[in-house]
């Protein structure tokens, strides 16, 4: 029983990071209606920034958190202004091809500039553990989980409780009507995109003490994020949080009982089951 | 949204499999004496394995330059045509391009077993030789390909070498009889990891050891907690592990976090031999074993003066291009050995440069020594049975060879590992 609880808790902690990666994707899709296939590449960029900050300036990812988030927000906003704003009215297929292309450009730029080396950040905490009763918890994963869930809940509160959040929800429901009510559509889109990229950047920072940065690291997480988002209901923030945690737990139990080779198969199976029985996702609107 | 969902799903799948593309082409022709002798080099020059792939290409270029300086092959200058294959799909496309459009007669490759098997499918159709010096999966030489020649050991032999050392030497050091020794096997799930693990498991069983667990995983794994918890339940004394670098580091970190480090960690190639392994794990890596091809052998191992000069010149030329490296990587050494040996020792023995003559020369030539420190003696399957793996150990951030005796440059330390769980 102790072991089962240990496996469950490990899954929850992994799921927290998956949730954070996915929340940004869900936000961007929910508000702008844009499927960002380059989402994982922003995670990669954030991991590289964390690495450089650590290696050049000596700040670990937690110390450089605010600087890195500011950089990611700027990158997110510039991407929106320079690239995304031009395709807001375009067909979905054009938007998707554009973000796919952006993903490839970012991956190959990273390969060209930083080579394919794995860049690890080794801080004392990397292999630290926290013990709660009989449970052994990886300290960086606990920190990542707490910050990830905290950030996701804050985002949810922001959307629910603030005027700007209400404006974003209004835009998501009906852009034209929201515009007629005086909401600046493009500025709202820009804000949503910037927040989405900042959140995936935060996920990258939290992952950086655990997982190395390399040009293709984003693709390890982006497929997972898409699955989480679809399971959660595409546009739902609580859905993305719950979907992330669910995938983490399913992955962990599958790894323990069936073997790690079946982890992916297990969450793909869950993905298929959700699509069959709840095609709009667990938290999606029909 | 309902209409949009199927499109999204298809694109998610597409995004995970999308690869570069290239063209097919018309059939190429063999050259005359005045024409250059075209050879191809297919390595991952972009993508996750680009670092070592580019180093391998550099090594092959140095080999070609050396051969050309010495007069070429059968009096013809060698022209190298390079291709980038980050994955097996691209490897197939690029092999087709080199063979059909460029008319290469030999391909040097390919770093990854999956790429090698993909290229072999193309070269076999056209009779072009594939000289493999990176992929160790058994399937490459067990599939009946006629024109594949592999200079290095194959996976199952490497796995068996590691397991053999565990059963015959480490068991003694631990004071545990092989029949009481509990061995767990973890491997990444590609043909490479599976071949090596198969060989290790077979040898462990043959020596009467208890294989208490065997698990495999995808290299994209991001959390090894469940794997480590499962392995730890089996209480292994020795962990035989086949990993690439990223997963090797994640595995060791997770073992440490769960206080589940076994008494002995025997890495079986790739990740655990990578310089980044010790650089990242730090002092805790002292005592981790890694079984791999011989690497950076002292020059006095090469008794032949000419070979000694060749190895020295290669290392110098290579490090000139990679000034940040202390030593030539194992992958680059193998790539050089494959290309150089084939062009200087095998092709001169071929009557003509047609596929049949090349195959005959490759299979009948016997060499006591190549630049990798072992000989050349191919079986009918194209596997070099003179190739061997060394048992190495990380000591102070350096790879120290423990076995075989003739290549040994240090004694075993840290058995059991100081960081082993109680």
Give the helix tally of chain B: 13
Task: Supply the CATH class of the largest domain in chain B.
Answer: Alpha Beta
Largest sheet of chain A: 2 strands, antiparallel
User: Overall 3D geometry of chain A?
Assistant: globular
Overall helicity of chain B? 40-55%
Counting helices, strands and paired strands, the structural category of chain B is alpha/beta
- Compute the number of structural domains of chain B: 2
Shape field of chain B: globular
Instruction: Indicate the percent of residues in helices of chain A.
Output: over 70%
Mean pLDDT of chain B: 87
- Contiguous runs where pLDDT drops below 50 for at least 5 residues of chain B: 12-31
Low-pLDDT ranges of chain A: none
Number of helices of chain A: 11
Biggest protein-protein interface?
A-B, 58 and 47 residues
Provide the spatial order of strands within the biggest beta sheet of chain A: 1-2
What is the SS-derived class of chain A? mainly alpha
Mean pLDDT of chain A: 88
Description:
The complex is a heterodimer of chains A (286) and B (422). Chain A is built from eleven helices and two strands. Chain A has helices at residues 2-32, 39-57, 65-82, 92-114, 139-161, 163-173, 175-180, 185-207, 217-232, 237-257, 263-277, and strands at residues 129-132, 135-138. Chain A is mainly α. In chain A, helix 2 crosses helix 8 (185-207), helix 5 (139-161) runs antiparallel to helix 8 (185-207) and helix 9 (217-232) runs parallel beside helix 11. In chain A, strands 1-2 form a two-stranded antiparallel ribbon. Chain A is globular and about 60 Å long. In chain A, strand 1 (129-132) and strand 2 form a beta hairpin. Chain B folds into two domains: 37-153 and 300-364, Response regulator (Rossmann fold, 3-Layer(aba) Sandwich); 156-292 and 391-407, Response regulator (Rossmann fold). Helices cover 42% and strands 17% of the residues of chain B. Chain B has 13 helices and 14 strands. Chain B has helices spanning 4-17, 50-69, 88-102, 113-126, 139-142, 155-174, 191-206, 225-233, 245-257, 275-281, 305-321, 330-346, 355-364, and strands at residues 37-43, 78-84, 106-109, 129-132, 148-150, 182-188, 210-217, 238-243, 264-270, 289-292, 366-367, 376-377, 390-395, 398-403. In chain B, the strands form three sheets. Chain B has a seven-stranded mixed beta sheet, sandwiched between helices. In chain B, strands 2-1-3-4-5 form a five-stranded parallel beta sheet, sandwiched between helices. Chain B has a two-stranded antiparallel sheet with strand order 11-12. In chain B, helix 3 (88-102) runs parallel beside helix 4, helix 6 (155-174) crosses helix 7 (191-206) and helix 9 runs parallel beside helix 10 (275-281). The N and C termini of chain B lie far apart (56 Å). Mean pLDDT of chain B is 87; it is low at 12-31. At the A-B interface, helix 1, helix 4, helix 9, helix 10 and helix 11 of A face helix 1, strand 7, helix 8 and helix 9 of B.
